[in-house]
Amino acid sequence: MNKYGYQFSFGPWNISEGGDPFGPAVRPSVPFATKLAALKELGYDAMQFHDDDAVPDLHDLGPAAIAKEARAMRQLLADHGLVAEFVAPRLWEHPSTIDGGFTANDPAIRTYARERAKKTADIGRELGTNLMVLWLAREGTYLREAKDAVKATHLLLDTVNMLLDYDKDLRIAIEPKPNEPMDMAYLPTIGHAVAMGFQAKDPARVGALVESAHAVLAGLDPSDEMAFALAFDKLWSVHLNDQNGLKFDQDRAFGAVDLRRAFNQVRVLDENRFWEKGMVGLDVKALRTQPADVATKHLRNSLALFLRLVEVSRNLDRSQVEALRASRDYEELDWLILNALTGR
Ligand code: GLO
Ligand code: MG
Fold first, then answer.
1. What CATH number did the domain enclosing 285 receive?
2. Which of 135, 209, 236, 279 for mutating ligand 1's site (highest number of atoms within 8 Å of CB)?
3. Cα separation, 309 vs 270, whole angstroms
4. 301 is in which domain, residue-wise?
5. Domain total in the chain
């Protein structure tokens, strides 16, 4: 915890080997224990998990063994003074889920996906977190005719309701992304996620996670996406990072591409006391060019930049901002912000 009250998190996938679709890993894989130590050293407070980050062999284990492994992970975190922020079902790698899980055309695969998500909820309970993130990676299509989109929407809603029934303490944060790996995802924006939540059987337990890069890929501004969720008290976590235009999902260090866009995300979060609502996750990836011994600097930079931008936001002359809004002198407001961002 820092003096501003924010808690920071990342996931084991944020210290990676640098493989991309065109080339193999270029750094050795880092053992989980080393990642945990790095998390602490870098000033972070919590780890984010996929179900199989916490329980790698979950496919081969029964409920009791899964619970035991998850409890051991919770203890390991506690030994480092850390906690788990959330757990997410990794439904995009298994051979069964090539065409999605919850929205697959094959009912047997839908059953697999739902059963796996229930295991994820069990793991979360043992890890000491009731927050489940649903990044619905393959719940979409490459071609529109491949699935029935109305049915798919109902299948997603049924899945959310099933999970809410299964675990009465569970809170679900939907992490939308418009594309990649699919051409088109069924829940591409925060509006979609929030609508799904309001339609669910217990709307108070369904919220959203905004990832900066995903909003940019949807052609939207991440701070406005965050604001929309905040307006309905639905923003339960964020994945801050950066993205250079409409390309592949880059997961660049926070603020590395567009400082002003980063500033506005921090401003919106801070103005709405986000530190009381959720953790600040940094879903950032080291560049493939980064040598192995310096491959956590993206995490260092992202956290430090967030805190600097909190200061910039808090030091803004609010009465001047109000006056410039009132007089519609947005050129002067522009200058005020640019001065703040350049340390004047
Ligand atoms: C990929 C997503 C991914 C999720 C993570 C948690 O584009 O951002 O990193 O956030 O798997 O579900
Ligand atoms: Mg993410």
1. 3.20.20.150
2. 135
3. 10
4. 8-316
5. 1
